[in-house]
Structure prediction request, 349 residues.
Amino acid sequence: MASNGTSITELEHAGLRPRPLIDPFQRRISYLRVSVTDRCDFRCVYCMSENMTFLPKADVLTLEELDRLCSAFVARGVNKLRLTGGEPLVRRGIMTLFTCLSRHLASGALKELTLTTNGSQLAKYAGELKALGVERVNVSLDTLDADKFRAITRWGELAQVLAGIDAAQAAGLRVKINAVALKGVNEDEIADLLTWAHGRGMDLTVIEVMPLGDVGEARLDQYLPLSMVRSRLSERYTLEDIDYRSGGPARYVRVKETGGLLGFITPLTHNFCESCNRVRITCTGTLYMCLGQDDAADLRSPLRASESDDLIYAAIDEAISRKPKGHDFVIDRRHRRPALSRHMSVTGG
Ligand code: SAM
Prediction:
């Protein structure tokens, strides 16, 4: 029930908008990231261990339940939805979910419906995504060297991802490339990735490796501070600081020589929490109010307990009232274990 005892559905019928989601630090929650599956066709070394145990099917929300949950957030003022995973495009029937959610684009409630993908299935789905109103996609790609790509992803084929990117651009989707900076692996290649991405009209964001989940390799061996990436790129390119913010944690510069944007996501060396407008749900309906904290709320029980959405709204409100001010990741020699036990594939990055 809404605070005055009227149900949200009644409020909507009366033409009144339900209250927006505002956290205790007066941040308005307008962006929801949804991990639609914990499964992936890759096993990136910084993300998953080689032998992952995946969730039993009964624990995972059905596509109808995911639609209902996302729609509850949209009704409460979320205007940007990003589907992620695991790999969102390996979830069976995923286009049904995109089709359902696209009604919120048509109604104007959603400004953006998008996804983060490893690109392996993009050749198959790019046209359909564009037709449903998806305008841009983020593709994760850490190297253009096929052998290195195989070593990083364990199971991936570079050519398949490049074909996916071609298909996305041919379908009219804007593509942004996300690359994780990995010490001794792709650190020498980031300038080439930049030249390639900007040459094809794609922005590039470089991500600092985050200490999420035990992946069987010491984080210190993977961790490369982006301050080093930036200073090396500066030897080849002129990086101009700009005010542009995508609403997310990336800080952007414009590369003078290419005209393209280069983003840096530095959760470990930079604090971006003060402007955080986002929350995340997993494929089991667990709501994480912060990527870097363990606190979470179960939305699956209220979802399954009643056909009315009022229990869900109450659970969301209660959870948002606990959204923390920020996170506290640490990678140093005293903290060799992951800062959080869950993998990025659970909350979707
Ligand atoms: N499968 C999709 C993909 O590849 O983009 C979506 C899920 S994936 C978990 C989302 C992003 O998180 C990818 O860009 C991946 O590189 C990044 N990622 C995974 N584990 C990470 C970690 N420990 N630190 C930083 N980024 C990570």
Remarks:
- Residues 169 and 177 are 12 Å apart (CA to CA).
- Residues 94-107 form the longest helix (14 residues).
- The two ends are 32 Å apart (CA to CA).
